[in-house]
Amino acid sequence: xxDHTSIxxxxxxxxxxxxxxxxxxxxxxxxxxxxxxxAGKPNDADKSIIIQRRGGQFGFRMHGSRPVLISAIEPETxxxxxxxxxxxxxxxxxxxxxxxxxHSEAIEIVRSAGDTVTLEVLxxxxxxxxxxxxxxxxxxxSLYCGYLWKLAGYASGLPSDKWLRRWFTxxxxxxxxxxxxxxxx
Length: 185
Hints:
Blueprint: H1 4-38, E1 47-52, E2 60-63, E3 68-73, E4 89-93, E5 96-97, H2 103-111, E6 116-122, E7 142-151, E8 163-171, E9 176-179
C-alpha cells in the first residue's frame, strides 16, 4: 500500500525526470542549431511542414515549453498526412522562433495562423536510436544507443562546468554504458 510520502516522492521523481528530458531536448536542439550554423545551412529545422486547417482543426497537440513538442496527432486530420511526428520539437511556427517561447505563447501563434500553419521542426525520433550507429561488437545486446552529454569531473567530485559528448548504449541488462571518444582523455 502506498502512503502519502511515497506518492510525493514518486511525483517529485517524475517531475525531475520530465525536467531532465526537457533539458536534454533543449541541449540537443541547440547542438543541432550550432552544427547547422557551422555547416552553413540556413535552416535550423530538419523539416518544414505546411498544414492546412480542415474542419476547424490542424490535428496536432503540443506539450511543454522551451522546447514545445508535438505530443499527439489526431487520426484522419491534416497533421496526420503532413509528415509531422509525435516527439518533434518545434523550432518555428510561421517563421517565428518558438524554442524559447512558453506553451501558451506557441498556442497563441498557432491560433492566429489562419487556415495554414508552417511548422519548422527537429525530429527527435533519432535522438535515442540514430540511423548511423557506430560499430559495436555487442550491438545486438543494445536496447538504445546514441550520443548524450556528460558533465566532466562529476564522478570524482571535482567542480566542473565542462560537458563532454559521449556515445552511450542501454543494454538488455538495463544498465547505461558510455564510451569515451578516441580524442578524449
